Fold this protein.
Amino acid sequence: MSGAAPVPGAAPLAVLGVEQAEAALVEHYTRLVRLAYLVLPPSLGRNRRVLTAHALVQRSLPRGRTAARSAIPAQSRAEAAGETGGAEDPEGVRSTGTDGRTATGAGRDPGYAYVRERVLRQALDAGRPLRRLARPRLAQLPPPLPRVWGLRLFPRSGGADELALDQRLSGLSGPARAAFALRGLELLTDEEVRRLLHAAGAVDTETALAEAADAAEQRIGTADPVELLRSPEFDPCSLQARPTDLLRRRQYGRAVLAAAAALLVCGTLLGLPGGWGPDDDADSPYGHNAAVAAALDPARVRRIAPAAWQTAARTDFSVWPARGPLAEDHALLRRALTAWAAPGASVHISATPATPSGPPMGSPQLLYAGTVDAARVVLFHDGLRVVRYAEPAAGGQEVAALDFARADGADAAAAGALVVGRSDGEVRYLTAPWVRSTSVRDLLDPAGPARPLRRDADGVTDPLTSPAMAQDCRSWDTLSVRDDGAVPGREGTSNDDGSDGSDGSDGATERLLTDLGELTPARLTSGPPSAPGDVSAPADRAAWARTACLLPAMRSHGVRSVNSWPYARQRLPESNGTATWLCTRAETWRGTGSRVLAQFQAPARTAAPGAVAARAEDTPACGARQSQVLAGVLWKSRGGKWYVLAAGSGRLGSVEVSGGVRGSAPGNLLAVRAREGVQAELYGKAPDGTRVNALR
């Protein structure tokens, strides 16, 4: 049924003072701005959505001294809602958590209800077509206030889950986004949302509610979409700033000063020869800076010969040849370089953590230029970064994307492939010139064969499913690349058994790369931190089958490689089999910010994910500099008894537990009877008596 019908049960309108509305606006300003930002159409761009959201809220006061009170309640659910609970995983490891949401006092404030309705109506108007040119809707025009000169403002960037939610919301209609935000942020019932949307001018409220409910039910990885609404990604009051087009702004300032001086001197100067001739650099984003102009000249980009990598002393991105059918399209290269040097408001910029997004440092190296799916793509390398420029292939060149990723210190293994395109949950890679063949391996199917993956003449693969964009973990497709055994950089990749990482069939080394939501795929390895090797042995693949579904914790973090090390094996009490303890460490391109997971894998008939016993960030534990690691879990046997289990790497002299349960054991393994839900502190001692704390 259409939402245009009269809403039954609406309360009669009452008089509301403008002071009451202003007080509600000031008290709940951040809440109202977040609501407006979520409802505004994504086509406005993030910078303009921020300013427009603030403008809508600030002009939502009544025009006179009084206003009609909204018939829609601000909040009719409980003032506080929360639930706690515990769940036991299939391995018997107890995990508990809390998730509470608390509504504010706005629930009984008619002033807040009135202002919220005004904000919602204006935000919905911004997504509707202009009806009459003579009376354009204010929300569709750039806001006169607030106005920020010289800066572009954006909400703080979130992770891959927040980006996926933003993409999901951009596919909804304005009323559906409003319904999603009202249900998730305002905690309104469907009937209250229906009434509020109708009051704000929405037509088909039933469809909007259905779309919002569908978007809320589909989880994003392991995250609840409703909870993600509260992240800084969608908070227009917690902002980060970038400069606007500095060179163009300087040029405009000079032009304004010159024009003012000309008007003051004499209008007749307009007729003087040569006095007002065209400026050859009027459209140049780099103005009169000759050095920068030379660096951004498409004719001067560095192009590496196709066979240079075969004799180069280094084997990394610096010896990739220039490839792609559009490598000689100077117009495309000029647009890409211009967007890189001075990105306009329509250029969406993303960068891995600690990656500068400034202009190129000299003439960059061209890696690829061609059409991938529905976009024209250009890949550059400037020694520190890999930069990807993309624009729609079917016109619309005013909208573009610019992605930055650290790539310094790469070797042959780390420089095996780059992400060249993503669409519809799939990813395409551009492979290194030394890659002989590509295939796809599903980490969750360790015994399954590799599936062939075709590449074109330039090294661009066919699309494969991207686990970084998947909403579940039913499979984890990785890119398997085989390169020539004579490629420099193969050294140091041997496995613990002395093998070279190849299957022996063709002398080629196989490496596994996985997409974690960035330009550079992460390399997967197995083995001790001092000598990690490629994932080739059956035992390594079996361990990774139960580790793959933990990789989402490392997405969009600038990860260079992920190593999974089975540091201990423990016979479980009551003849429950043997468990494996693993330490999974993600190294970043920038060196800092590593992430470590200690994992407990109890015996299981299926490739069920292991239980995370401990996690830490930016720690040397489980790494090449400090391989020591200690972790523990509370585990229940098949007989129903509870134990504290702990394991450390092989250099421990003893392990001890204190607190709710006490016990100790020599060596690196411990198993002590305990009660359900017990809290305990775990630590170990090195052979020289030095205390070793558990990973945390």
Observations:
- DSSP finds 13 helices and 31 strands in the chain.
- The chain has a mean pLDDT of 80.
- The two ends are 54 Å apart (CA to CA).
